[in-house]
TrEMBL record:
It comes from Lingula anatina (Brachiopod). Its main location: mitochondrion. The keyword Iron applies. Pfam families: CybS (PF05328). Keywords: Electron transport, Heme, Iron, Membrane, Metal-binding, Mitochondrion, Mitochondrion inner membrane, Transit peptide, Transmembrane, Transmembrane helix, Transport, Tricarboxylic acid cycle. This is Succinate dehydrogenase [ubiquinone] cytochrome b small subunit. GO terms for molecular function: heme binding; metal ion binding; ubiquinone binding. A ubiquinone binds at residue 113. GO terms for cellular component: mitochondrial inner membrane. It is a multi-pass membrane protein. The chain crosses the membrane at residues 135-153. GO terms for biological process: mitochondrial electron transport, succinate to ubiquinone; tricarboxylic acid cycle. Heme b binds at residue 101. It is found in: Mitochondrion inner membrane.
Amino acid sequence: MALSLLRASRGLQRFATRPQLVTLQHQPPLAILSRHSAHNLTEKSDPSAVYDPSGEMDHDIVSKWKIERLFAGSMIAVLPAAFVIEHPIMNYLVATAFIVHGHWGLEGVFTDYIHGYPSETGRRRYPWVKSARMVVLYILTTTSLAGLFYFNYNDVGLQKAVKMLWEV
């Protein structure tokens, strides 16, 4: 049924036909890419440079991405350990892990979707948006971390709160 809806639409009909897909399969891989992308693929020996549209991959970004993945993987071990080892230090460790993980995730969302509306000239129409989004991100992160630390210090703590929620 979905294919019949696509065929009924004149504007999308060219995407639903099979001959275009077949012609792309018989072309060499570099012929499908634009001239600029093909030049970057042949010039760069670093495989991570393929994903960089400008051709210059920042190694800080790659190492940060690896650290984020290792950190997310380590949370798989930290969270169950937090319920086995009941200690205030573990409460603070879990709170910090949640906030750091959330900070990196929101940083990616803010970077991808809040960018200052590029104008026709290629310059940012609102250049202050880049710094404003980071200020908002750090305010959210700091407030969240302070709130969780306050909850850990003045109330039952994260471990006990989750256990109390499970009992309800």
